[in-house]
Amino acid sequence: MTIKEVCGQFHITADTLRYYERVGAIPEIGRTAGGIRNYTEEDLKWIQNALCLRGAGVPVEMIIEYVKLFQQGDDTFEARCSLLKEAREEVLAAREKYDKALEKLNYKIKKYEEAVKTGILVWDQEQVKGVL
Amino acid sequence: MTIKEVCGQFHITADTLRYYERVGAIPEIGRTAGGIRNYTEEDLKWIQNALCLRGAGVPVEMIIEYVKLFQQGDDTFEARCSLLKEAREEVLAAREKYDKALEKLNYKIKKYEEAVKTGILVWDQEQVKGVL
DNA sequence: ACTTGACTTAGAGTTAACTCCAGGGAGTAA
DNA sequence: TTACTCCCTGGAGTTAACTCTAAGTCAAGT
């Protein structure tokens, strides 16, 4: 599979794909005789993994660390496990912030929708702290 | 309220607070006779607002836009409303990615916990796509 | 053989969001 | 008045994660 096909599949640029490989967020990709990258199904899973974690704000550095541990073999199960747990904590903490923001946004949007109709903006005091 | 007190309350640095003010993510803060910032309760709400949105990945640029509209008065209800809706879409989309990542992380952590005990790592094929 | 379009590298450039620094003023206490 | 801590500004520096550029190589079609 060529780099272009992979890009199309994941909606990312070739630069990003090469960047991930260069820094080690995905393993080295095999090449054709002519030196052109040839992605396997396994490679696609690694890309999926990197994109999924990045999408949840996990730093590239952490993904690199996981790939390294993976490549070091079965002695690193424990290290990988605690790395993943660390990542999970970060993602959970971030998601809570997202939930809080959504709650406030929903409240404000509701009030603004009313305000657009009535011409008057009202905040029910203290219903949601810190709204403006 | 001094800048230091505000920093303590929100666990951010004075630099960040001045930065938000400088770019307009919060309104201008009133000063003492000597030119030192004196934060009011209203200011704190704006800071809360900025931090809440930033915590959910909403770009500073968007927050600035909201503050601008707010300061332009009641003619901007509609504009503010659609800005908030746009922000909500972004936050919702991001949160879905977080959920997907969490699902995978939970699955992998479970498998790794078993692997640490048994010495063998098993992926139930296709249960979660793209796991490694 | 030639053209065309996709691929390669090393390395420089960009962007957002801070973060730090130098040089100086403000406020309180001894 | 001296000391000390906090605060001020303008501007430079940092960091992560890409993103782009130049100069060249590869592969397919005609």
Report on this model:
- With 132 residues, the first copy, chain A, is mostly helical.
- Chain A has a domain at 3-93: Multidrug-efflux Transporter Regulator, Chain: A, Domain 2 (Orthogonal Bundle), CATH 1.10.1660.10.
- The first copy, chain A, is 66% helix and 0% strand.
- Chain A is built from five helices and no strands.
- Chain A has helices at 3-10, 14-23, 41-55, 60-71, 77-118.
- Chain A is elongated, with a radius of gyration of 22 Å.
- The interface between A and B is large, with 46 and 46 residues.
- Chain A binds a DNA duplex (30 and 30 nucleotides) through helix 2.
Entry summary:
The structure is a homodimer of 132-residue chains. Chain A is mainly α. Chain A is 66% helix and 0% strand.
